[in-house]
């Protein structure tokens, strides 16, 4: 190298190193693992690409029921962020699985009914009409409570509350797979099951397969509040925090509301 150029070259390299520390640029990109309740999948499919584009991070989701995810975290499965029901986040904080004080509420979701496209919508206007609708139905479908789905647990308890659990048992189909092209929807779409009950956000996302019939009546409605927390096992808590702040921002919440979610 020309000796006269060496000092200026060295100074330039020092300047580049100073302007580009390890925390900036390609080195800053992270893959964030998020264990997330399935009810938020439709909303995050719309939101998360914006986060990935603006942050440079990649988010990998593990979707399952609240009960299943909580159990997996308790058993030591590593993640960066957990988004489950608020009560579960609180429990996991107390157990040392979620960083204390990292809880942020994301959205809440109610339960609705769906039917085959083109068929009459059931009367869900009151608790009495809901009871009559269920008894008159040839078949219904909802999330299997044994699978840990919060809506399934609640809906089973609602049938007991209405005093019709025994009558509905033989004509109820229970599901654990909530894919938009799975049997939980196709069974209704092809007439095998007359009507189904799931989180409203998931029904709206499956609008090309089935038709949303409306929410449960207010007196029978139950909302699940989904909250995010940063896992104590996370090796990248700052990136995890950035993701949580994004999905709980005013802009994200406005988008979620448009997709059928309610705000905390």
What is the radius of gyration computed over CA atoms, rounded to a whole number of angstroms? 23 Å
Principal-axis shape? globular
First and last CA, distance: 64 Å
Unreliable residue runs: 1-27
The CATH class of the largest domain is Alpha Beta
Number of helices in the DSSP assignment: 11
Content of β-strand? 15-25%
**Estimated helix fraction:** 40-55%
User: And the CATH topology of the largest domain?
Assistant: D-Maltodextrin-Binding Protein, domain 2
Q: What is the makeup of the main sheet? A: 5 strands, mixed
Give the CATH architecture of the largest domain. Answer: 3-Layer(aba) Sandwich
Structural class: alpha/beta
* Count of DSSP strands: 10
Count up the domains. Answer: 2
CATH superfamily of the largest domain: Periplasmic binding protein-like II
Strand order of the largest sheet: 2-1-3-10-4
Helix/strand order, N-terminal first: HEHEHEHEEHEHHEHEHEEHH
What integer is the average pLDDT? 89
What would you say this structure looks like, in words?
With 264 residues, this protein is α/β, with parallel strands linked by helices. It has two domains: 9-107 and 226-258, D-Maltodextrin-Binding Protein, domain 2, CATH 3.40.190; 111-220, Periplasmic binding protein-like II (D-Maltodextrin-Binding Protein, domain 2, 3-Layer(aba) Sandwich). Helix content is 41%, strand content 21%. It contains eleven helices and ten strands. It has helices at residues 6-19, 41-55, 66-74, 86-94, 127-136, 150-161, 165-169, 183-189, 200-205, 237-247, 250-258, and strands at 31-37, 58-64, 81-85, 104-109, 111-115, 140-143, 172-175, 195-199, 211-215, 224-230. The protein has a five-stranded mixed β-sheet. The protein has a five-stranded mixed β-sheet with strand order 7-6-8-5-9, with helices on both faces. Helix 2 (41-55) links the parallel strand 1 (31-37) and strand 2 (58-64). It is globular. The model is unreliable at 1-27 (pLDDT under 50).
